[in-house]
Amino acid sequence: MRIAASKPVFSRRFLAVLAGALMLITALAGCSVNPATGEQSFTAFMSPADEIKVGSREHPKLVEQFGGSCDDKALDAYVKAVGARLAAVTEIPDLPYSFTLLNDEKINAFALPGGFVHITRGLLALADSEAEMAGVLAHELGHITARHTAERYSRAMATQLGLAVLGVVGAAAGVPSEAGNLAAFGAQAWLQGFSREQELEADMLGIRYMTRAGYDPAAMASFFRKMDEFTRLQATLSGDPDAADRFSIMASHPRTGDRVAQALQLTQGTRPQNARIGRDDYLSRLDGILFGDHPDQGVRVGRDFLHPGLRIAFRVPPGFVMFNDPRQVVARGPDGAIVVFDAAPAKDARAAGNLPAYVGRTWGGKVGIRNVEAIRVNGMDGATGQTRAQTKSGVRDVRLVAIREAPDRLYRFIFITKPEQTGALTTELQRTTYSFRRLSEAEARAIKPLRVRVIDVRRGDTIGSLAARMPFDQYRQERFLALNGIAPNERLAPGRRVKIVVQE
Fold first, then answer.
1. Residue 11: exposed, middle, or buried by beta-carbon count in 10 A (0-12, 13-18, 19+)?
2. How many CA atoms lie within 13 A of 357 on its CB side?
3. Residue 286 φ/ψ, nearest 5 degrees
4. Is-above-0.70 flag for pTM?
5. How far, in Å, are 33, 113, 454 from residue 54 at the CA level?
6. Measuring CA to CA, which residue among 323, 110, 117 is closest to residue 235?
7. Which of helix, strand or coil describes residue 359?
8. Stronger pLDDT, 121 or 199, i.e. the higher one
9. Cβ–Cβ contacts within 10 Å for residue 308, how many?
10. Residue 381 in contact with residue 374, Cβ under 8 Å?
């Protein structure tokens, strides 16, 4: 009698699912008590040694991305000293902590796992005391000691492992693919940045470290409040006043207002005796710090953009506010009008022999640019064309302008306006085109960047009179108030030290 071979009881696919499930269960058991929070945290997929490796690898990339290290050695040493004072009172004082002052104008700070803290010179310019700066550094230390990156990464890995198991089981059981997509959204949310709860936990730990180091913890709340005002001003300058109040499920930071309220609550009864604020010392060190653009990226002065290195300049229309980054300059005007300025890649500039053809086909071909014509701009060849396009914001008129400044340098403007406002802005936008010019060597050498100067209020000085001294085309008073954390109706007492921005 012949006995037929029986099929395996468990298929290879089932065994793979079982192995994955066992791995997931083992990983989920990898919770440990965090020394900073005293609570269980899931960090099974990233050890402390891994955190140091990740931080060491990503640190130089982040420094390069944000303009490199600040070349003000004295301020850099000051940041390092305050950071070391705070790190010494954390629950993990023996980490190889690193504190870097970034040469970036934006108001920001970052923490990488393993002890790497970064703070921008733009944030230093906004802060008003050593305690406020310490509050930011302490908050970032809170992310590190609470091991928030390891926790976020481990949860994401566990989710991905679970998705792999779910995908196999689901395919076998006929589960629709939408289930996997929903779970993927949760994994993506973990990878967006620190969660709201983690941010608030970092605030709590930051206040603990400030107090231990002898700083007034209320300075954290005062800086958050100042950040809130500055964010609202930036939103107004960008032409979107409501942007400061938005909070979506994918955002990584809680609203500043919520953080102010929590920080104020946490500081009750925690202020150490003779708490250090260090305002005068801080302002003395801050005096002369670069404000806004670094000359290597070009300098905005009022409505003018001046680049000493490239030796070019242009002027935007009245009512437009410029924003500068390494890739482009964007000027936002009334009712959503936009001017974008950049340079074509050198390879494209050399290949663009016929500028009307470049504007009409190479650069603007995909948007259907028409009415292309050659122009001359201050002795330089150029070309322009226009179209009406459907954008995410609605129907817009679009005009492209290309200007050849050298064989391998081709500069470009994009003008975007609502159809109903194009006619009213045409003349001013044309003036922007024809304001583009070369700078002489003497003009380039004469360009001075913006700097923060700390001055004493004199009798008769007002918010308006001090703000009028700053080289901005608009919102001077609002900028002055935000820079100093002053209320609009506040009176300035003679002798008070305040920050203004000057060009020198």
1. exposed
2. 6
3. -75, -25
4. yes
5. 22, 7, 40
6. 323
7. helix
8. 121
9. 20
10. yes
Domains of the chain: 40-286 (no CATH), 299-446 (3.40.1000.10), 450-503 (3.10.350)
Length of the chain equals: 504
CA pair distance 143, 155, nearest whole angstrom: 16
Helix, coil or strand: residue 101: strand
Cβ atoms of 386 and 369 within 8 Å: the answer is: yes
DSSP labels, 116-133: EEEEEHHHHHH--SHHHH
Distance between CA atoms of residues 37 and 200, nearest Å: 12
SS3 409: strand
Could you tell me how far CA 503 lies from the centroid of its own chain? 24
Dihedral pair phi/psi, residue 412, rounded to 5°: -135, 140
User: Is 19 exposed, middle or buried (CB count within 10 Å of its CB: 0-12, 13-18, 19+)?
Assistant: exposed
Q: Give the full edge-to-edge strand order of the sheet including 497-503.
A: 290-291, 450-456, 497-503
Contact 66, 120 (CB under 8 A): yes
424-464 pLDDT, tens digit each: 999 999 999 999 999 999 999 999 999 999 999 999 999 99
Look-up: residue for tokens 């004469």?
A: 446
Strands 312-315 and 338-343, by their bridges, are unpaired
pLDDT per position as a tens digit, 351-362: 998 999 999 999
Structure tokens at 361: 């086909």
At 298 the three-state DSSP class reads: coil
